[in-house]
Amino acid sequence: MAIDAKPNERTRRVMVGDVPLGGGAPVVVQSMLNAPADDVAANLAQIRALADAGCEVVRMAIPRRACLDAFQAVCEESPLPVVADIHFDAGIAVEAARRGAAKLRINPGNIGGLAKTDAVLDAAGEAGIPIRIGVNAGSLDDAIAAREDLSQPEKLALSAVDYACYCESRGFRDLVVSAKAHDVMTTVRTYRLLSEKLPDVALHIGVTEAGTTFQGAIKSACGLGILLEEGIGDTLRISLTDDPVQEIRACWTLLAALDLRRRAPELISCPTCGRCQVDLIGMARQVEDRIAGLDKPLKVAVMGCVVNGPGEAADADIGVACGKGSGVVFLQGKVVRKVEEEAIVDALMEEIGKL
After folding, report:
1. What is the Cα gyration radius of the chain?
2. Contact of 124 with 174, CB cutoff 8 Å
3. pTM for the full model?
4. Mean pLDDT, rounded, for 335-339
């Protein structure tokens, strides 16, 4: 391993189904289902929509033992590896490992303590699947939460490190660790500590309970952007109070902005000004919607006038620059056709289809 390797190049790799996580693998994009846990059809429909959007691993809550049959059915039909998310009942985790889970997510602090955790470790070991130890600010062990000598990031990191070390002491090393908070800088400081104290363990990063799409995307981009730029994080979820597909769009947008991974087109558009003589805001939204499902890592520019036209967006793969009632389509800075305003979006999409 190179001395200057980034933290996420030094972590121990685990396999979540057929998806490599850690050890220098590309940062894995994941989300969580929010359909009723006993509705097989609804969960599979959501998984397929997430897969189409670029999701690579999906997590499903199993709140009751009665939901295990549905979980198994979902695992058998899912195009993506399914992680079982379990709280409070170690027996559900044990059974989920036997019924097709690609990974287990537990919090030893609410699963019943270390004695109950042992059974989960054994079940995961027998199934050959990894475990994510997930610690949240709202569910710390009482003893750690009460310590006044530790900051919140130190409490979160200590809790996660203790659990990870315990698992490794029992010979279970296929671990992923997370320690999330809704506060951005608490999250950043916690993961920096984890990366230092658990350099071999893959980290799942995220800002928990980040909020609705607007606020949640900004908070997540701030915190996760800092960490990813520092090389911390092997997999991520951007948690939004919205359709999970929006989480995947946000993840890929963030990874592309950091030049880590590209999948979908990136929209470049100017903020408009008094020079603009077309409905650029509406046009940009149309283009954003129409390119959202494309599996092409293109840079697409929608510019309001010749000042911010092909010149400033010359590095775009394709774009439009608008004048009064019309616009030009350009490829890598060179104009290829001129069209009327009402035909601009269609013309742009037509040219994108040729690429």
Report:
1. 23
2. yes
3. 0.91
4. 89
